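Slide 14.
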Amino acid sequence: MPFAFGVIGLGRMAQALVIPLIEQELIPADQVIAVVGRQDSVATVSERVPSGVKIVAAADPAAIDAWGASVQLLAVKPQMLDAVAASAPPRSVMPESGSSLLISVLAGIPLARLQDLFPGRVCVRAVPNTPCLVGQGLTGLAWGDGVSDQEKRQVRSFFEPVSEVLELPEDRLDAFLALTSSGPAYVALMAEAMADGAVAVGMPRAQAHHLAHRTLAGTAALLHEQQLHPAALKDMVASPGGTTMAALRQLEKAGLRSALIEAVIAATQHGRGMAN
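Slide 15: predicted structure.
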């Protein structure tokens, strides 16, 4: 009997997606087969996933079973795509398993290229971000040709345990990636810089990092839960002639606002370039 869920590349993001599906009993563990790059990774990865998941190395003949699963999650590094596609057996030689759904989480790889590399499979492009690791993620989905309504519901169910899911036209995915997938790095940089500033004026580093993280998390929750425009929250905090206004003046002089805008634009353009 073919496996229900094949995972090609079981790194941190793939683990963050697969483990909740098993823990919430959406997929039985013994119906999941995952392929890792090297034989010496099999034991290490096996310790991180629920018992019953079959882990095999890419060179193992059993890796073909992942490609025969009714649904396949492609989660390798983008630069490995051509080699992985060359090793994938064509659908014509695989046992019939009904669906032939391939979900790719590879950044910057468009649906047209996926469909060329994996003929006979129905392709979906997914862009999850790293907060999926703590169940607070965002995932953008773009559908390839021939995805049925039932398959769309199935794909959404794979990502909903760890993220809010948005269906988007593919030409919007690059901006989505630049904002949500690259965005945690921008926020981490701000958290680090804010903590460094506090350390510079005498605060212990561990305390500074804790307070920076809590400030960012609390501010994000306030913006989201009260549906505040960022400018409204800024005005709530910035009293006339106060310390916040003094700080905001410095940020404007340093070009923080423009730098963040240009960062999102640069990431979007780079993502579009990867498609070519």
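Speaker note: Strands lie at 5-8, 32-36, 54-57, 71-74, 101-104, 122-128, 137-143, 163-167.
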